[in-house]
Amino acid sequence: MYRLIFFLFLIPLFYSCSGVSDEDYIEGQTEEGFEDGTYCAEVDYYNPNTGSSNTYTLEVEVSGNQVVQINFNNGGWLDEDHIDAESLDSDGTCTLISDRGYEYTVHIIGKDCSSTDESSMDSEVQEDEQAITCPNCGGEKYDYDEYCSSCDDELHNTCSECGGYEYGINGGVCESCESFYY
């Protein structure tokens, strides 16, 4: 009889120590993944073009257990136009790559964000984007170049007299101006 009582006492204790408890789940998380909605996440940002990185607390949108959008405090966001949706693993983590090659490792930490660091991330992302944005035409450039290759060619192939474009000038004058002046 004592063995039966002892055994009945051990079964609930054994099951409570094994497996995952409800407390291990984040609100909105099920055994199949995360329900659709907005979640608070730690986002590790890395820009391979400049080597800059940081960790921020941001809101993310989840649909079909995939992170489909990262929201910024200034009203901006990264969505399917800039990132490919990625599935969350059982820990609530995934890595997204933006259309500019930036890496965002997202780790869901809860349902709601009480405060976020988005404004500092916004300025860092803007600085990185300025480093790879041509100041002449707004196109993409390497961060070590002053202008994109198209504008660089155009600026180096512009006639110093009339401002016309002719390939191969390299700071001189075009054929029209050369024949007019010389």
| Annotated CATH architecture of the largest domain | Roll
Query: If you compute it from the alpha carbons, what radius of gyration comes out, rounded to the nearest whole angstrom?
Result: 28 Å
User: Please, how many domains?
Assistant: 2
Order of helices and strands: HEEEEEEEEEHHH
> What is the CATH topology classification name of the largest domain?
PH-domain like
Structure in words:
The structure is a single chain. The chain has about 180 residues and is an alpha+beta fold. It has two domains: about 30-120, PH-domain like (Roll); about 130-180, no CATH class. About 25% of the residues lie in helices and about 25% in strands. It has helices at about 1-15, 120-130, 150-155, 175-180, and strands spanning about 30, 35, 35-45, 55-65, 65-70, 75-80, 85, 95, 105-110. The strands form two sheets. Strands 3, 4, 5, 6, 7, 8 and 9 form a seven-stranded antiparallel β-sheet that branches. β3 (about 35-45) and β4 (about 55-65) form a beta hairpin.
Kindly list the characteristics that best describe this protein.
PH-domain like; rod-shaped; alpha+beta; single chain; 182 residues; 2 domains
Could you give a quick summary of the protein structure above?
The chain contains four helices and nine strands.
Walk me through the topology.
Layout (H helix, E strand, L loop, with lengths): L1 H16 L11 E2 L2 E2 L2 E10 L6 E11 L2 E6 L5 E2 L7 E2 L5 E5 L5 E8 L7 H14 L17 H8 L18 H7 L1
Antiparallel strand pairs: 1-2, 3-4, 3-9, 4-5, 5-6, 5-7, 8-9
